[in-house]
Amino acid sequence: MLYQIRHFSASLLLMATFSFLGCDSSKEPKITSNEYKTWASYLGDSGRSHYSTLSQITKENVKNLKVAWSYKSPDFGQMQMNPIVVDSMLYGVTAAMRIVALHAATGEEIWQFGDSVKVWHSTSRGVSYWERGSDKRILVTRGPDLFALNALTGKPISSFGNNGKIDMRTGMPKSAANKFVISNTPGTIYKDLIVMPLRLSEGADAAPGDVMAFNVITGELAWVFHTIPHPGEKGYETWMDSTAYKSPVVGAANNWAGMAVDEETGVIYIPTGSAAPDFYGGDRLGSNLYANSLVALDANTGAYLWHFQFTHHDIWDKDLPAPPNLLTVKRYGKKIAAVAQVTKQGYVYVFDRKTGEPLFNIEEVPMPSSTLEGEEAWVTQPIPVKPAPFARQSQDLTEADISPYAENMEELFEIFRASDKRQYAPPNTTPTFLLPGYDGAAEWGGAATDPDDGIIYVNSNEMAWNLQVKIDSGILEATPIGAASYQKYCVSCHQADRKGLTQSGYPSLIDLQLRKDKKEVATIISEGKGMMTGFPQIDKNEMTSLLQFLFEEEAKPTLTQEFNSNSKKTVYKHTGYKKFLDSNGLPGISPPWGTLHAIDLNSGDYLWSIPFGNTLELGEKGIGTGTENYGGPVVTENGLLFIGATRDGYFRVFDKHTGEILWEFKLPAAAFATPAMYEVNGKQYIAIACGGEKLGTEKGNQIIAFSLQKK
Ligand code: HEC
Fold first, then answer.
1. Nearest-angstrom CA–CA distance, 417 and 588
2. Is the dihedral of CA 608, 637, 46, 703 positive or negative?
3. pLDDT tens figures, 140-158
4. Which residues fall within 8 angstroms of residue 540, CB to CB, at 6 or more apart?
5. CB of 530 closer than 6 A to ligand 1?
6. Is 611:591 a contact under the CB 8 Å cutoff?
7. 494 CA distance to ligand 1 centroid (A)?
8. Which of the four pLDDT bands, split at 50, 70 and 90, describes residue 492?
């Protein structure tokens, strides 16, 4: 069943237009036709195309797909990784961050890195591969460390860094030494360099989001690009506080979702996230370049070429969630090397890859101002005239958009009426209705492309959230240190009563002592777990007190002075990531709750849009309500689109020309991951990791490869 895509309100005021910033790259992007037969890099190739020309699996025979092999890892839980395949080896990362090398045709384990090492609670989207002659390396992170492993044996390469690894923080200012710095997306390889995405805190203790390139052979730092510019650097003037770059409060603006590189021109395209703290910008007034931007740099040197900022002075956590796609589009009969960026807001922006010039006009549209003390929301935000957004927008909703499945409609109406639904309504002490929400529209799964045809395929969430802040009144003297520390670092997610927001994925910490020991909890606190960032800055004494508080033990030491965040301004604290759900835990807005789209970026028009996934507990058959979904698609030249991602735990194949479903398979656990397509010994495979866990689904531990069964 196809549904009509709602068209974006045309009544926008036309304001300032995009000002072109110039570019000094002299190299002409070449319209190349890569072979797209291998999967040796994250999402298939360095243009992050999610694309394959392998053609044994066709529309006609796809119904004969069967499990070719399945690998069961020793640990269970969410796996976001996109496997890579080199020669006959498939490389992946398990839920507890074990790196595994499997035989790509049989799933037989060849080596494993990290089995005897401790279990990590972080997530990983995979590994990077580099080779020169017989020197073949896998590059992968764990915590702040970047490892170089021998691709054939899994052993660390001792000549790299410090006996096989480097601490990425060594490339950052000294102040980052005890901050949370990890990476959960594979680095981008260009020549002998690896450019690293970083995951940082999103609070008032974030490290700066420096983009760092390291030498793959030695581990030495090759270049750094400051996403929060230092004095004398371009963009420095966009921070009203001249010390923002070294502020103990302000940080991030990091790339976490990965990057794309044009290997012909040596230009790397880096999408960045918001500056921290996420939801209050009083300490970082200004437009905040290069946060929320697509930045084009010379991959050899890190030199700036051009940028575009998608959200000015972000106070909504509108990180760019996925690497851009490099593709070719046709304009006035001419082929243009382009770069497309999907966003959490549900817009896709298309630029000339060389100049940064937008290929569809982008208008600076006036947006609401903030009434919070010390806050200045930016007066406009850039909205492309085309394509229309691929997700509903809060300002277009009416009461008819409340879920017909909800048993507590009256309650939902009340919340809905009381919320500010304007586009880019700034955070306030009263609720703001966030649709698309914190996790998009587009999320880290990103979009697939037909790189030579200018078509992109993108899956999207339609989950509304409530955003609210409150005045942070500080923590008073005589509060036990453990309780104060909890209030400072943990309340926004686990809530003051420690009951969490379980329906939104933030667990209760009540009775923690019955489920976990102190050592385990201390590890989770310093290193993070899944969506939770770590707090390595909590020292031993504070940790002891915090654990006492969490384990409900008598607390002796109390604060002798008031203790607050480092902010100089009135600070507003985020009250937590709250989904807009009905009393049964289903989305409070009407379906579709997840969608899948094909958009022709030559014309900006939609080819098709369908609800994506189903809510099995509602008893609907087939493709019904759509579901929240994480993980991206893979498309083939011969017309197929492969995707897992939905909460219902299916792996599906669609006709890429029509959106018609051709095949589906119920996985042992939901696959919040992007599949990999490859060929070994003349046979075509598609492999996907299914670890479940997210969105309250069962945990799993398998990597499953499918191929055609001979009849
Ligand atoms: C940004 C939101 C966020 C903050 C801040 C945060 N947590 Fe978490 N925490 C989470 C999420 C999400 C999980 C679930 C992670 C998973 O299992 O994937 C979690 C899990 C945990 C767990 C494991 C619970 C279990 O039963 O498995 C503990 C313990 C915990 N957090 C303690 C803390 C403490 C203590 C703090 C403050 C120092 C803190 N968290 C700060 C989001 C957060």
1. 13
2. positive
3. 999 999 999 999 999 999 9
4. none
5. yes
6. yes
7. 7
8. confident
Q: Residues 375, 426: contact at Cβ < 8 Å?
A: yes
150 near 91, Cβ under 8 Å?
no
Spatial separation of the C-alpha atoms in residues 102 and 289, rounded to whole Å? 42
* pLDDT in the model for residue 711: 60
Closest ligand 1 atom, CA of 538? 38
Q: Is 310 in the pocket of ligand 1 (CB under 6 A)?
A: no
Residue-wise pLDDT tens digits, 89-103: 999 999 999 999 999
Would you say 102 and 703 are in contact if contact means Cβ atoms under 8 Å apart? yes
Measured from the CB, is residue 492 less than 6 Å from ligand 1?
Answer: yes
Name the token pair of 206: 């974030």
- For residue 409 the two structure tokens come to 């409609």
**Polymer length of the chain:** 711
Position 181 pLDDT exceeds 50: yes
Q: What angle do CA 206, 436, 571 make, to 5 degrees?
A: 35
Please tell me the predicted confidence (pLDDT) of residue 575: 92
Identify the CA nearest to 278 among candidates 339, 198, 205, 346. 205
Q: Is the CB of 577 under 6 A from ligand 1?
A: no
Q: Tell whether omega for the bond before 245 is within 30 degrees of 0, i.e. cis.
A: no
Which structure tokens are listed for 2? Answer: 């196809």
Residue 192 token pair: 């002998």
Angle made by CA atoms 658, 664, 665, in degrees to the nearest 5: 160
Q: Is the CB of 529 under 6 A from ligand 1?
A: yes
Q: Which residue has the tokens 């670890």?
A: 691
